[in-house]
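TICKET: design request
STATUS: open
ATTACHED STRUCTURE:
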């Protein structure tokens, strides 16, 4: 059983930055891929960023150059550094992995970008 707890969300002005954290209840070293998803009101959940154990990263086109995903296996934590935030980044952000055929999600953290 795996539990994720996201934190770091909040209200920020356009152009600002936030750093999200996803703390796992156990070792994340066994998870080859860790993801960040987001879901805006009235929209489907979408993949924002993913990081592999080897260090490779993938990003949605909408966040490339602005968001950076990282992981610290020793601390069982995944991060999402979000810079140059835009109103369209407003959403609930979720941590996710898939392990032995099962999806694991955190409860989400709200990010609101507004002046």
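STATUS: resolved
RESOLUTION: sequence designed for all positions
ATTACHED SEQUENCE:
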């Amino acid at each position: 059983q795996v539990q994720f707890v996201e934190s770091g969300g909040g209200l920020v002005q356009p152009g600002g930055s936030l750093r999200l954290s996803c703390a796992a209840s156990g070792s994340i070293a066994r998870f080859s891929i860790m993801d960040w998803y987001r879901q805006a009101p009235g929209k489907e959940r979408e993949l924002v960023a993913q990081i592999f154990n080897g260090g490779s990263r993938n990003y949605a086109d909408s966040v490339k150059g602005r968001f950076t995903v990282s992981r610290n296996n020793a601390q069982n934590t995944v991060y999402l550094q979000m810079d140059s935030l835009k109103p369209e980044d407003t959403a609930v952000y979720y941590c996710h992995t898939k392990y032995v055929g099962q999806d694991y999600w955190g409860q989400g953290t709200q990010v609101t970008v507004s002046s």
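CLOSING REMARK: The chain has a mean pLDDT of 97. The chain is about 0% helix and 55% strand.
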